[in-house]
Specification:
Low-confidence stretches: 225-230
Number of helices: 9
Strand content: 25-35%
Structural class: alpha+beta
Largest sheet: 10 strands, mixed
Radius of gyration: 21 Å
Helix content: 25-40%
Order of helices and strands: EHEEHEEHHEEHEEHEHEEEEEEHH
């Protein structure tokens, strides 16, 4: 029987602004999930102001009962958040009621289904204050660049490459996707992934075994709601070791602390800082953060998670990310420090420009 990993994350209320969920809200979500007989095991954590639920079960991807369980847990947490007067209570629950599948209702969702290997190992990545395109560069480097993944040279199976599924997240009439094989189509892949706001890695598959290695939450909130409601604060599941990259090869690209969309009001550019699990956000509602945990699973039962960024090495990367954040914030609203007009979460600038448009005049020639 196949094992399914379901990772579902949402912002349902936070203390002091967009900082962190309260202990009571976390407890409400944990208690609701713990009472379910649908799942085999689970792990719940936070990153920034989001709560993430990792569940194992044998019911397959997109299972209505599993998605309903997560939705109801978030609703229960939202009830507590409202009682406490937390900021943004229930803000990622965009529908009034569950409608069979949590995808498209606000929370970020990533799922993998597989026959367990004897040593089934995987990594959970969860980010806050950014969008799904934040993972484009790390996944490209971790699965297609031997400078970060030496297994592409040393492993016979990995030497055959990987197949990337890329989604055009600006297309709202349905899932518009393309599949590209690397290394054969490496440059084509690079052409797409340079545009983090439109083309996003959805999944990665081994060319040798056809097994799925990566699942990324890709639906963006402004395409769900019809207006720009916010960044998705995305999650990723990555199977590692064996025919897939090693854990260290997946994590290696995060030392770059590369610039991504997000930060304050989801409308700026900032470095993606690798942080410990359950970290808050602070500076300019950021910087954009990502946490990583490693697990093993056997017969659907999870081991305890290990915090992969809780190591002295990553302290120096956090300093680097801090310096990069300060550097770009010194530029304020100007140029590349802020996102383009179509990516701004708040409509104030567009409204101002519409008013100013009527005051522009074409100067008469002398």
């Amino acid at each position: 029987m196949k094992t399914t990993l379901s990772l579902i994350k949402a912002d349902i209320g936070s203390i002091g602004g967009h900082v962190t969920p309260s202990k009571q809200v976390l407890a409400a979500v944990k208690n609701y999930i713990a009472g379910s007989k649908l799942i085999l095991s689970h792990h719940i954590f936070s990153i920034g102001d989001d709560i993430a639920i990792l569940m194992t079960h044998n019911l397959g991807k997109n299972n209505e009962a599993i998605h309903r369980l997560a939705w109801c847990a978030f609703e229960d947490g939202t009830r507590v958040a409202k009682e406490q007067g937390l900021y943004g209570a229930g803000q990622d629950l965009l529908a009034d009621a569950f409608s069979g599948n949590i995808r498209g209702l606000g929370p970020a969702v990533a799922e993998l289904e597989f026959e367990e290997r004897p040593n089934e190992t995987f990594v959970v990545l969860a980010a806050d204050k950014t969008d799904p395109g934040a993972y484009n560069l790390p996944l490209y480097l971790g699965f297609a660049d031997p400078m970060h993944n030496s297994g592409l040279m040393l492993s016979p199976k990995m030497s055959q490459g990987f197949r990337f599924t890329i989604m055009d997240v600006e297309h709202t009439d349905g899932d518009r996707v393309i599949e590209l094989k690397v290394p054969e189509e490496l440059y084509d892949l690079a052409c797409l992934l340079r545009d983090n706001q439109r083309f996003v890695v959805e999944g990665i598959y081994s060319a040798a075994t056809q097994e799925q290695a990566v699942a990324v939450s890709t639906t963006r909130l402004h395409n769900i709601a019809g207006t720009y409601t916010g960044k998705d604060d995305p999650v990723v599941l990555v199977r590692v070791q064996g025919e897939f990259p090693a854990t260290g090869e997946v994590l290696s690209p995060f030392r770059i602390a590369h610039y991504v969309a997000g930060f304050m009001r989801g409308s700026h550019v900032g470095p993606l800082m690798p942080v410990k699990v359950n970290s808050t956000v602070s500076y300019f509602d950021g910087p954009p953060v990502v946490c990583a945990q490693g697990f093993c699973v056997r017969n659907g039962i999870l081991t305890e998670g290990v915090d992969l960024f809780d190591h002295p090495f990553w302290d120096s990367i956090r300093v680097k990310a801090t310096e990069k954040a300060i550097a770009i914030r010194e530029q304020g609203f100007s140029g590349a420090a802020m996102l383009g007009m179509n990516e701004l979460e708040y409509g104030g600038i567009k409204e101002k420009l519409e008013k100013l448009e009527t005051r522009f005049k074409v100067r008469e020639k002398n």
